[in-house]
Amino acid sequence: MSQRQVLQVFEQYQKARTQFVQMVAELATRPQNIETLQNAGVMSLLRPLLLDVVPTIQQTAALALGRLANYNDDLAEAVVKGDILPQLVYSLAEQNRFYKKAAAFVLRAVGKHSPQLAQAIVDCGALDTLVVCLEDFDPGVKEASAWALGYIARHNGELSQAVVDAGAVPLLVLCIQEPEIALKRIAASALSDISKHSPELAQTVVDAGAIAHLAQMILNLDAKLKRQVLSALSQIAKHSVDLAEMVVEAEIFPVVLTCLKDKDEYVKKNASTLIREIAKHTPELSQLIVNAGGVAAVIDCIGSCKGNIRLPGIMMLGYVAAHSENLAMAVIISKGVPQLAICLSEESEDHIKAAAAWALGQIGRHTPEHARAVAVTNALPILLSLYMSQDSSEDLQIKSKKAIKNILQKCTYLPALEPFLYDAPPNILKHVVGQFSKVLPHDSKARRLFVTSGGLKKVQEIKAEPGSLLQEYINNINNCYPEEIVRYYSPGYSETLLQRVDSYQPLV
Amino acid sequence: MATLVSLQSRLPLIDCQYYYRNRTVDGYRKKEYKAAVKIQSWFRGCRVRAYIRYLNKMMTVIQKWWRGYLGRKHYRQMVKIQKRWRGFKIRKYCFNYYYLKEYLRAISDTNQAIREALEEFAEMRGREKKKADLEKEEKRKQNQARKTHYLLSTKQIPGIYNSPFRDPDPMEFEIRKVRAFQMPSAAHQIQQTDYEDLSTWLACTSKRSFPRSDILPPINRKQCQGPFRDIAEVLQQRYKPLQPTLRVATSINSEKDAREELRREEWNNRVHDNVFLPFSSFSKNEKYVPMVQTSTKYNGISYAQKQFQEEEPTKWMSNKTFQTVFPPFVLFDKYGKVYSRAGEIA
């Protein structure tokens, strides 16, 4: 009988431990409890339970620790300081799959907050065990370890290099080919985090044969998977021309264009980011995209979304137009300029407006045809107002000024230039008047229009120092007209006429 | 007079002097003449050279102008040709305007095609999604109807979806169509009992017969008044599980099964299935060693050979032996041929 009583004591204790650890794990799911738990010293209590005899208690304790560390980085630091990591790493190699999942969850939760914590995880040798877990049969274990590796590699290049050196990349590429969608997502996101830091890392990922599999998965129906895959491809393509060409060789065009029509906003954003990263390297790549009809698709995509989602698409148009005038003309005939003008006027964020201004400048700076196409859409007054207004950020002001200057230097479309005579500040006025002085001597209809619209009057009113470039332009303009008209419109002419009336001796 | 005399005295000298002077002058005359010629010729030469130089200069100027004019004329013609050539070259090879126009037109056609294709694609996706949503909605409704099947209206009592003052709700029709939702545990139990054998029959009986519900009876149930036994005891006795004897509990085939089991076991452990053949040639090759009693010249014991096997051929009806109706005893055929003599009697 006494033996049974003794055993009963132990059973009670075990039940108490199980209940405690399960309750803590459940409370840790709600953020408001975590402060209280932290103050009650839950870390020091959970630590010995990790070494408990009963496997369920170990697993639940690891799960609770993971949830706590996930919440904020003080707790994660406490996990690191409490020397829990070596124990976790050791048992990660030994135990069953539930424990492996929970331990990988703890490593992920600690590693996600800051590079120092991630470095601490690397220092205690967790990378090798995590890579071993990537070869496990259970897809849940693979997912947890891939997630942990991805979060560690996210912070900076050295950590990514450490992850690559542990041999994770070929296993991640194998994980991408697994049938479970969640595992594919996580593996794609881990590859994206690894390749974003430097060209060498991206090359390592490419050498493992990732591009072909990633390109196949673009056609998958799951939206979150597509997000990660497109993000991974764009991180690979952004570093150099060779990598971008390799991505293009995987025959992503025109399949990628279907992703631009997806319902999910972030899929659209990542797809346009990918196209932008490819287009920005060389004119040939941009030509390829234009020939595949990518410009039209991107313009439609810009039209259908709002805010930050549009930004990569706008930048892509700018990059394409910047390479050569034929490409800029291609952008114009795809009806890109009205769309950009709409973005410029509609958007509220300054950086998006700056990007749209820059793109318009790149389109309009090549030849008078291009400048005319930009000027017709009435974008120039908007650019001017953005330049002049005080609440635009400095970046926006600089970009709109450059865009205005670039377009004005080639613009011969006079109806668009006339409003500038009235509002523009002197440095821009100089260019405007210069353009008039270039066009007016040759075009008689334009001269007539200039007079009737009151432009000549305004030009007379401009004060310029004699000998300056502005004065020279004004003289050029005045030389296009007969003297009477010039005198008629010069300021103070009515006074001189009246003075003549005063001093006139009437004929008797 | 004096002068005249002097002069007359000099007269004859004059001839000599005249001739002398002439002679001497002659000597110089050539020289002087040559000198004068030389000087004059040199001077004339200078003049002419100056003139020639002057002419040369003029000639140079004129030729300069003329050559310049020619060159310029040539240049203008060259420029015309080169102008035309360069224009042609640029238009044809470097920047072919019409090619560019064609290219831009092709681009805009491609754009149009891509836009249409993408529209179609998006539409198709939208339709698929809508269909999936509709199907999900249908399923949900059906599930709901199955779960709330008890709300079906009966003849006496109209259900809540079948109000007498209004048209019946579509849910009513839905409920009428579907079949009732059964709890999954009962279905599983029915499936399990199909393939019962005796070992789990006991468990089955106890589950099936004892009335079990999820809700236990209340603890503080008042004892019914009267001479009733404790209900727990009663139930225990009523639903006592079967405790069969060992004979009943063993199956009728258990002996046969056990034998089969043994045979299988033995078959497993055998090295090969060929039956050990008797060393038949062993006995064939053996030379017959007759018994000591029979190999004497004296008459052997005829006790076993002859007396029981007495033959009188004269009494035989025919030469043929008896027809065998029953199969011969295999065992008796082996008599004397089986290699082991263990167990034989003498």
UniProtKB/TrEMBL annotation, chain A:
The keyword Coiled coil does not apply. It comes from Monodelphis domestica. One of its GO terms (cellular component) is sperm principal piece. The keyword Repeat applies. Keywords: Cell projection, Cilium, Cilium biogenesis/degradation, Cytoplasm, Cytoskeleton, Flagellum, Microtubule, Repeat. SMART domains: ARM (SM00185). Important for structural integrity of the central apparatus in the sperm tail and for flagellar motility. Interacts with SPAG16 and SPAG17. One of its GO terms (biological process) is epithelial cilium movement involved in extracellular fluid movement. It holds the Pfam family Arm. This is Sperm-associated antigen 6. It is found in: Cell projection, Cilium, Flagellum; Cytoplasm, Cytoskeleton, Cilium axoneme. SUPFAM superfamilies: ARM repeat. Its main location: other. GO terms for molecular function: microtubule binding.
From TrEMBL, chain B:
It is found in: Cytoplasm. InterPro entries: ASPM, IQ_motif_EF-hand-BS, P-loop_NTPase. Keywords: Calmodulin-binding, Coiled coil, Cytoplasm, Repeat. The keyword Acetylation does not apply. One of its GO terms (molecular function) is calmodulin binding. GO terms for cellular component: cytoplasm. Pfam families: IQ. SMART domains: IQ. Residues 100-147 form a coiled coil. This is Spermatosis associated 17. It comes from Monodelphis domestica. The lineage of its organism: Eukaryota, Metazoa, Chordata, Craniata, Vertebrata.
